[in-house]
Specification:
It comes from Rubroshorea leprosula. This protein is mainly α. Helix content is 67%, strand content 0%.
Length: 276
Amino acid sequence: MQRLEIRLLIPQRKAFLGVAPTTLMQNLIQHKRWSEGEFQIFLSKYCPLVYGHKRIPLKLQLSYGIYNLWAPNSLAMLYYVVVPSLCLLKGIALFPQISSPWVLPFPCVVLASRAYSLWEFLRCGGTFQGWWNEQRIWMFKRTTSYLFGTLSTVLKLLGLSKATFAITDKVVDEGVSQRYKQEVMEFGTRSPMFNIIATLAMLNLLSCIGAIKRVIVHNKAVDLLALQMLLNGLFVCLNLPVYKGLFFRKDSGSMPPSVKLFSIIFALLAATMAMY
């Protein structure tokens, strides 16, 4: 009996061999599909909090809810990426002054959350660089994949769209494969998702430049806008591969010219409207 169990657990023939995404676009499309399906489950009669009531433990219901709400989580992320940057350009403070004791809860919560995330990542065998890349990818997914998943689900509920299944490309050319091995991010296709990523990156870069100018002109701006500057600086650091793809890379994996033009125009337009 024991030998039979071992044979069942470790079969001689591999049952399935999958191909993981090797480009950013493949990853975004895959997560758009996943988040859309999870959100549809949450809005259906099979929602874990409704259908799972008295069927499964509450902790398990809440665990499922984390994944079911991936899609609408994009709205909160968009707020943090866009609104503080626009307010920074205008000089509007969204957080307490750095000299005020009321500022302490904000950095404490953020540092505790990220420290635990890093500890958990390292405990599972990861590296600091891997954790940092994970934060970057999560930002990209929340502002694109999950946003499109939310919009697609809402349109389907309103009867304005039909169900579709986005297929990720499994064929990778030699150049893409080489950049993947070198851990260089791939941007070489035109997509609305890349338009959003590039535009948000440019908006945060313009806000960072505006904040530096404001600090030089008004010394009190540091005390008033310190947390927003730190948040903006964090987003700029996370978007460094995007800036490289927009301005410095010349290979086929760089941002397409149309995406570059779109992002610059819309970021400048948003920054101008925020300032005036």
